[in-house]
Amino acid sequence: MATGSIVLFGEALVDDFVSEQVVGGAPFNVARHLAAFGSAPLMITRIGNDQAGALLRAQFERFGLAQQGLQHDPTEPTGRVLVELGEHGHRFTILPDQAYDRIDSAAALAAAAACTPSTVYFGTLAQRHPTSRAALRALLRSCDAVRYLDLNVREGQVSERCVFESLHEADIVKVNEEELRDLFGWYTHTRQDTGDMGGSGVRGACAALIRIFALDALIVTLGPRGSVYFGADGATVVHADTVKPARMVDTVGAGDAFSALFLLGRERGWPLELTLARANEFAGAVCAIAGAVPAERAFYAPYVARWLSD
């Protein structure tokens, strides 16, 4: 692994539909995007000895993802999310007691020791079990990397206490609008209208969150309205010129696509405004396909040609 790698910690799983299994998990989606754009991320996760695990291993190999951080559990199954199509859309059941709940601290630290992480990406789902939570804490304390938290709260899976502790561990936090409103209610005790992200109330509440948790930055994704970056120095960067997909299929994975391009932009030294523009555009592009990640690598070709040729 090269010095300055992006390390991603957390769940790699499959979304189990009636007819097929599709690989996923927010950290894995971000890692796969990064690899497709020529980065060399290190994914730290744990899978079981089963068909779902074989699917994930195949994706590691297909995208050239380093496997030093890929742990194998002898008893627990690979993470699965049951997906049922109902009258009002998809219903997701995140199964308990999965391999990614048992990420081993020693193995995680050994994998990270092979590189000097520039950034550690983490979320909250893989912290629902004490074993993986302890492994993440050990990883964060083992290096001086920038800590990027994609809150990615899943109902019934994460406690407010976990969110509170995660925010204290982070340097840069990315949330969506609904998550931002939750943070306002929990920690600023205000109810701000996030429809106007430029309003003084929202700006003040975001500045309060940055102070409370000693953040470098807070990023809010707004779907078709773009994104807003709030810096600890008081800077606010609004990027509303989002390129809308010609055909909207679903929004699954849009946040992961945004995170991947934001991290790629930081790794490559792109200006912040350009990074946000590209992250918004790529998130919109993922909304034009079914699922969180494209089935074919050819999907990335036009973006690689435009963004990585300079």
TrEMBL record:
Claim: Kinase is one of the keywords in the record: yes
Keyword field contains Nucleotidyltransferase: no
Alphabetic keyword roster: ATP-binding, Kinase, Nucleotide-binding, Transferase
Residue span, Carbohydrate kinase PfkB domain: 20-292
Family stated for the protein in its record: Belongs to the carbohydrate kinase PfkB family.
Name of the protein in its database record: Fructokinase
